[in-house]
Design a protein that fits this description.
It catalyses: carboxy-S-adenosyl-L-methionine + 5-hydroxyuridine(34) in tRNA = 5-carboxymethoxyuridine(34) in tRNA + S-adenosyl-L-homocysteine + H(+). By secondary structure, the chain is of the alpha/beta class. About 30% of the residues lie in helices and about 25% in strands. It is built from ten helices and 17 strands. The strands form five sheets. A seven-stranded mixed sheet has the order 9-8-7-10-11-17-14, with helices on both faces. It has a four-stranded mixed sheet with strand order 1-2-4-5, covered by helices on one side. A hairpin with a 5-residue loop joins strand 1 and strand 2.
């Protein structure tokens, strides 16, 4: 079983200590009632990963661990085969002792678009909502964040995160909890909150923005990244059953409308910092994610449209501050 005791001990010493009033009960309930059918077998696979202390870790330029002397072919093959069991790998890439996990998403491209604009993370306490396998959490640590908490209810992502953490030498600066944002109390404790690729999956996007705001300290910064459409502050797409083959896509506003939503929720200094079309270089099938990807979600005769006829994926990033 994943042991969250160390996380409890760490937050007991900082300004997240009030979270302990509800968090242990929530995670105990999760372990009793909500485990995925394969979770126990995934944990056994995790235990088979070798305990390696990396000679060098680079989280500034990627998520990279190396060892001197270089691991043998057999040792690399062992790590490769174990990590393959945790497919599909969606967010990355990772380079761990010569095993390169070529994930579906080039999440480093998104990070490179964001990092020139966000406030320095040095010494900060950070929350990453919908963090997936935790790729961006490690990049936040690489930027000097003191303590990074990720939340994502998908249990495969938790196992992927724990596998990477073990191969990084059991780094305790980042932690992933199997929770959704709606399960968090109003902590008002994070200097920076990231919500990337979550908003369009929420039935009530303004409630999501309020939940994010309630995690921030006064003066804290929100980095919001989401699907958008072209248009002015009055434009919003409400797709039918699917958008780009995804279910549960409720609202895709224009970036300008998203800015209005943030201001409506009381954020200030709201800025649109990036707007980029998602390319098949950034999201694609790989050896580590073999099911359908972006190429299968677009109209084969018109790449500017999804297979359902909606505008093809366009993503925007915004930064806002809690007063």
């Amino acid at each position: 079983m994943i042991d969250f005791g160390n996380f409890y001990q760490l937050i007991a010493k900082n300004h997240l200590s009030h979270w302990l009033e509800c968090l242990p009960a929530q995670l105990n309930h999760w372990q009793r009632e909500s485990l995925h059918g394969q979770f126990s077998s995934w944990l056994k696979v995790l235990e088979r990963l070798p305990d390696i202390q990396p000679t060098h870790v680079d989280l500034k330029n990627g998520v990279i661990a190396t060892h001197e002397p270089e691991l043998s072919h057999g040792e690399k093959e062992c790590i490769h085969n174990i990590l393959k069991i945790f497919m599909p790998w969606r967010k990355g890439p990772f380079s761990l002792y010569g095993v390169d996990i070529d994930t579906e998403w080039r999440s480093d491209w998104k990070w490179d678009r964001l990092i020139p604009h966000i406030s320095p993370l040095e010494g900060k306490t950070v929350l990453d909502v919908g963090c997936g396998s935790g790729y961006h959490m490690w990049r936040m640590v690489g930027e000097g964040a003191q303590f990074v908490v990720g939340i994502d209810p998908t249990q495969l992502f938790l196992c992927q995160f724990e596998a990477v953490r073990k191969l990084l030498g059991n780094d305790q600066r980042a932690h992933l909890l199997p929770l959704g944002i709606e399960q968090l109390p109003d902590l008002k404790a994070f200097d920076t909150v990231f919500s990337m690729g979550v908003l369009y999956h929420r039935r009530s996007p303004l409630d999501h923005l309020w939940q994010l705001k309630n995690q921030l300290v006064s003066g804290g910064e929100l980095i919001l990244e989401s699907l958008v459409i072209e248009g002015d502050e009055h434009q919003c797409l409400i797709p039918g059953e699917r958008y780009a083959q995804m279910r549960n896509v409720y609202f895709i506003p224009s970036a300008k409308m998203l800015k209005v939503w943030l201001e409506k929720c009381g954020f200030v200094d709201v800025r649109i910092i990036d707007q980029s079309v998602t390319t098949q270089g950034e999201q694609r099938q790989t050896e580590w994610m073999k099911t359908e990807s972006l190429a299968n979600f677009l109209d084969p005769n018109d790449q500017s449209k999804t297979i359902e006829g909606y505008p093809a994926p366009l993503r925007a990033a915004l930064i806002a501050r809690k007063p």
